[in-house]
Design a protein that fits this description.
Number of helices: 11
Radius of gyration: 18 Å
Structural class: mainly alpha
Low-confidence stretches: 1-41
Shape: globular
């Protein structure tokens, strides 16, 4: 396929891909690993544990831990099939951000990335609660703690969004996006190739999203998607961070530099 001609080499050094998959897929299992952290307590935590059942379930956690746990539980309401694809996409994206924040907290990371992730998740959940998710941007700039690495995958992600791929695979697109940001942040923070597992995970999520799109559309739409991937790749490739430096990245609209 045309896409395969622009796909660059992945980062090679794996670090327990199965563990990373659990972090992105699990709704609540990793919450028990939360420890007190200045990064987590810095977020504006409303009381998300409104029901007695949730209060009882997380009674042994402190206020901040309960807030994170209950945010994950509340997001499940917006991931159901009766919700719009956009609601599902943002709910899964918030879940992935929370899992990232929990992971950073569990390893006692001093990086600001954990706080940024938690704040991103909270902003999304608040928008979902208010019914204002349409005000959230679909193609979001890369945060300052990360960078644009693997422009081939970012090109596929943006092309799928532009083509309505969120309708076909809201979870896969959301998880791939956070995995790409997570991987680049780890790459910069540790100056190593241990981020490879996250890049490979993002690749797998995007392949699933792309397959779902292909299966749900005709040949004309699929050819158009391939063309968009190439155009986005040509636009993103100059931004590729070759020196493992994370300063964020503004993602300009297609062909508007």
């Amino acid at each position: 396929m045309l896409y395969s001609t622009i796909k660059v080499a992945t980062y090679k050094n794996p670090i327990c891909a199965a563990f990373s998959a659990v972090l992105l897929l699990s709704m609540t299992s990793c919450v028990s690993t939360l420890q007190n952290s200045a990064h987590i307590t810095a977020i504006d935590t409303s009381d998300y544990c409104q029901s007695q059942d949730l209060e009882a379930k997380y009674k042994n956690q402190n206020t901040q831990q309960r807030a994170m746990s209950c945010m994950l539980a509340e997001l499940q309401n917006y991931q159901q099939k009766d919700k719009t694809a956009q609601q599902q996409y943002f709910a899964y994206k918030a879940q992935a951000w929370l899992n990232y924040a929990i992971h950073k907290d569990s390893i006692n990371s001093r990086s600001p990335a954990g706080l940024e992730a938690a704040q991103s998740a909270e902003a999304i959940l608040q928008a979902l609660k208010k019914g204002s998710e349409n005000d959230l941007v679909l193609i979001q700039d890369i945060p300052a703690s990360s960078a644009l690495m693997r422009p081939d995958l970012w090109a596929t992600l943006s092309a799928l969004k532009d083509s309505g791929g969120i309708v076909s695979a809201p979870r896969e697109i959301a998880f791939s996006e956070v995995a790409l940001i997570w991987a680049a942040t780890d790459q910069c923070e540790h100056n190593s190739r241990q981020a490879g597992s996250q890049f490979r995970m993002a690749d797998r999520w995007l392949e699933q999203a792309r397959e779902a799109f292909v299966n749900g559309h005709d040949a004309k739409a699929n050819v158009a998607l391939e063309g968009l991937i190439v155009r986005y790749y040509e636009q993103y490739s100059p931004f590729d961070t070759s020196g493992d430096r994370c300063n964020g990245q503004v993602l300009p609209p297609l062909d508007q530099m």
